[in-house]
Amino acid sequence: MRRRKTAVAAACCLALLLGTLLNVLFVPGSELPPPPPRDGAPPSPPGAPLEPPEEEGGGGRAALARQLRERYEEVLRYRQPRAAGARRAVRPRERRLMDLAPARTSAEQQPRGRAAAERGRASAELGLEPPPLGCRELRAAGGVQYLGSGYTKAVYKAVLNRSLAVALKAVDFGGHDVARCVRQFAALADCYRLAAYKIVKEMVLLQRLRHANVLQLYGYCYQDSNDIPDTLTAITELGSPLEMIQLLQTSWEDRFRICLSLVRLLHYLAHSPLGSVTLLDFRPRQFVIVDGELKVTDLDDASIEESSCTSNSDCFMEFPARNFTLPCSVEGRCQNMNEKRNLYNAYRFFFTYLLPHSAPPSLRPLLDKIVNATGELHWGIDETAAQLERVLNLYKSGEYLQNTTRISKSEYRRVPEAFIPDENYRCWPSYHHKGCLLSVFDVNEAIEICDSYSQCKAFVLTNQTTWTGRQLVFFKAASNHIMPDPDKITYVKVTD
User: Fold this and answer.
1) Cis, bond preceding 42 (omega within 30 deg of 0)
2) CB of 407 within 8 A of CB of 452?
3) Alpha-carbon dihedral of residues 46, 52, 57, 58, nearest 10 degrees?
4) Considering the entire predicted model, what is its pTM?
5) Which 3 state secondary structure label does DSSP give 42?
6) For site-directed labelling of 444, which of 21, 124, 215, 254 has its Cα 20 to 30 A away?
7) CB-hemisphere CA count at 13 Å for 407?
């Protein structure tokens, strides 16, 4: 009996000792103060784990390693193909691009020499051309100005070589992607690499997709930042942000140019060297305007993957206002889903707002047809592009005026080499915010416009033209003060 009591007491003491030891060794992370944040990383929220969270099938670091590997392999899918057996030297700058290649996990470790050789082969596979601009030009940049940021990247404006204005794109350490990754994995360096793959992917796509409506890649640079060695900065063509409110206040001709640029871009993406490319993050902010032309600037969410299917029900496209079901091909792919997704997004973000309003009356039936056909996805991108090119030809050639009655209500006196400096009135839309400056095909159209405005008493033909070759004309409220100007011709209304 005494031995039994002694054994029970000893067991209780041992249990108490083990419990105390376990409490000390495995104290909950929320009861410990969080580590100080690394420079550029957000502080850990209260209760955040100090180590990467465990997941099914492996720890948190293994999950992060898998994401890095997937991003890396995605970049390689867009690389420039090489002829079988072709080999080329790896340039130092290009090798550094692929130094972003994820390190293998412990189960995948290879000898150091073999791993280095593999990185060299990977960089050769990337196929980027030598950049004309790099770190030397970037270090001498002036006028650096923050433009904005998204989930992954921050964008800056800078002037290189004292003359070339460019955009600089870099990973935003305070952005959503890096902050969320650091909170989850507490690994700033790897989280930076995960985000940087989006910039690398975009750089590859900017070089593979050469088109007038795709932003130009000028180069890239590596420099240390935020305790991360060799952070990547992409140097691209600079554009102006696409502001829909401002676009709605511009002339129909300029708004039509935006839509035509977009359709030409989507036609190219549907037939690109990579196959049909879809823009998964299709919003106006993904585009910029360069010299009046629309250009896509954000390609890190582009994809060439076509959805697989076994029946039509698998080919379901859902949008806020409409849903569509596309046919499933005999090859088990949703027919033209990438193309149709781009086209419907072009309809809902651009065509409905920019195409029909204040268009020439004789072109409106055709423009309405284009808007309705794309809104219902009755047309593909080939037919849409052909119809918009037809509108352009009708507009540039003046054929759209042939079916209109052009009998002037008034007589006009021609005054060569003359200009009216004042006497302005406002009209909408106008190329001049303080006057009425419109484009015309010929003098007869200018007379027709002047007759349609009760304020118009004269107009001045300038020597300036728009992107379609149409002449810019100032419409005036009076002709009391006429000045000599060898480059202009004035028409004064003499009868009403």
Assistant:
1) no
2) no
3) -160
4) 0.79
5) coil
6) 254
7) 1
Name the nearest CA neighbour of 97 among 241, 231, 240. 231
Taking 50 as the pLDDT cut, the residues of the chain under it are: 1-58, 83-95, 104-125
Integer angstrom CA distances of residue 186 from 38, 176, 181, 427, 491 = 10, 14, 7, 59, 73
Q: Which helix (H) or strand (E) holds 143?
A: strand 142-149
What is the reported pLDDT for 264? 98
Which residues does the annotation mark as catalytic? 281
CA distance 130 to 92: 10
**Closest to 298 in 3D by CA, of 125, 175, 148, 99:** 148
Q: How far is CA 487 from CA 351, 423, 477, in A?
A: 37, 19, 21
In 3D space, the residue among 135, 134, 141, 146 whose CA is nearest the CA of residue 161 turns out to be 141
Instruction: For residue 296, give the 3-state DSSP assignment.
Output: strand
CA distance 255 to 359: 10
Residue 496: what pLDDT? Answer: 63
| Residue among 370, 377, 372, 368 at smallest CA distance from 338 | 377
d(CA 130, CA 405): 59
